[in-house]
Amino acid sequence: MTSQMMVDLVPVGEDVLEDLLALAVAEAQPGEVMPPASGESADEARTTWTELRKGAFREYHRRCRLSVTAPVPEVTWAVRARGRIVGAARLALVDGDPDAREVGLWLGESHRGQGIVGEVAYWAVAAAQTMEARRLVARTVATPAALRSLERIGFEVVEHDDGLLGTITLP
Fold first, then answer.
1. Residue 1 confidence (pLDDT)
2. Nearest CA to 83 among 153, 140, 147, 5?
3. What are the helix (H) ranges across the chain?
4. Model confidence at 73, in pLDDT bands (50, 70, 90)?
5. Cα separations (Å) of 38 from 31, 42, 54, 100?
6. Residue from 146, 95, 6 nearest 164 by CA
7. Most CB contacts within 10 A, which of 55, 76, 97, 168?
8. Arithmetic mean of pLDDT over the chain
9. Rounded to whole angstroms, how far apart are CA atoms 55 and 7?
């Protein structure tokens, strides 16, 4: 008998931010979970956590907090499953196009392969629809697991810039 996993998306307040950073440091590489820190090249291998990268991780999530008074082009949430922070999800404008949102997701290594990606994807579709988007876009590394996940969720997938680009047209 399998049990349903309860997945929640929670705002990244200061308390959640420190839990999220601890997970990222323990179970992910900086290049998997955040854009380059100030002064780093997008091509630079970002495989170790430095104090600069930890600070940039905090600032990135602080910049991406949802606010009614100051709209932001990208919003992040922590992903919680079984009562624990397991990763983060985001929705962002795509090149300023009001009809498109890009979904991003990372999970700590020990939480991958448990169906969390699919549950977050359903949330992302609903959230993008409430934002009146017409398309949801996902970009990821080209691995068989990533391809299977995107196709299972319903993305139309093509190879693009050394990775995969998935698109869902929203009703």
1. 36
2. 5
3. 14-27, 30-33, 51-63, 116-130, 144-153
4. confident
5. 13, 10, 12, 27
6. 146
7. 76
8. 89
9. 27
Residue where the block lists tokens 């979970």: 33
CB neighbour list of residue 147: distance below 8 Å, 6 or more residues apart: 157, 164
Q: What is the token pair recorded at 2?
A: 């399998």
Structure tokens given for 3 = 């049990």
Q: Are strands 74-81 and 7-11 parallel, antiparallel or unpaired?
A: antiparallel
Query: Three-class SS of residue 124?
Result: helix
**Identity at 33, one-letter amino acid code:** V
Residue 24 burial (CB count, 10 A): 23
36-41 long-range Cβ contacts below 8 angstroms, 24+ apart? none
pLDDT at 3: 46
Contact 114, 81 (CB under 8 A): yes
C-alpha span between 160 and 163 (Å, rounded): 5
Distance CA 12, CA 166 (A): 26
